[in-house]
Structures are given as structure tokens and as C-alpha cells.
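User: Fold both of these, please.

Assistant: Here is the first one.
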Amino acid sequence: MSDNETFTRLLHFGTIVMGMSEEKFWHMPIGLFLDLMACHKQFLGIEKPVKAENIDTAIPLIIS
């Protein structure tokens, strides 16, 4: 797949699927857009998070 095809697909996903303006898409850093795209897919149930965390593993219990 060429770079033009890749950016056309990303532009379609950003503007049509996620509802952002084309100007906002082109001014957004690519890493942020890919993170938003992954979150959107998780919200729709298309994709699962890479690793599910809960509060107990994020903040270990400290007993004084």
C-alpha cells in the first residue's frame, strides 16, 4: 500500500467515521490521531485494549 493510499484511508477514518474536520485532521500529530483511532475502535467494540489494567495493579496497596 502506498503512502497516498494510507493517508487517504486515515483521512476517511478521521473525517467520516470520527467526524472531525479535514483541517483538524491535517493539523493533528499522527501519533495522537492513531491513539484516538484506537480508543474509538475500543469504544465501538471493534478492538480490545492491548492490556487491561485495574486500579489495584496500577496503585499497589500500601499498608503502614
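And the second sequence with its predicted structure:
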Amino acid sequence: MPVKIDAEAICHHCGKRAPCKLDVDRLMSRRFSSPGGAMSGLPDWHYKNCGYETDNLACSEKCAAALTKTTS
């Protein structure tokens, strides 16, 4: 059974915060390299391809687009 812990996501553009769960097994797995993919409970958030090479979170399409523009 996977171990999930309570966490808080923070949008890297606007700073919005939201509660979520972290799947510790997936986060620690060598096969898995994206922390965003180990998060659950954020159905409208964007984890990848929002502008930075590192794993960043965006709470909306608008924030994801803004992150993409700031790194172009």
C-alpha cells in the first residue's frame, strides 16, 4: 500500500496554495523523476511543461502560460 502524506502545493507564478497528497513511494522511486506526478488532489493544476526545466507547479492555464513566457 502506498504511503501518502499531507502536503501543500504552491503555484510558482502567483503563489496560490492548495492542500494535496504526496505519494512517497513514487517520489522516492528512481524510475520516477517528476515530483509533480507524485502529487494528487490538484485536478486543475499543471505540473510539467510550464516553462522551467525543473519541476514547477502552476495553478491554472494562465499561470502556466505566464511561466512559459518568463523563461522564453
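The chain has one domain: 4-71.
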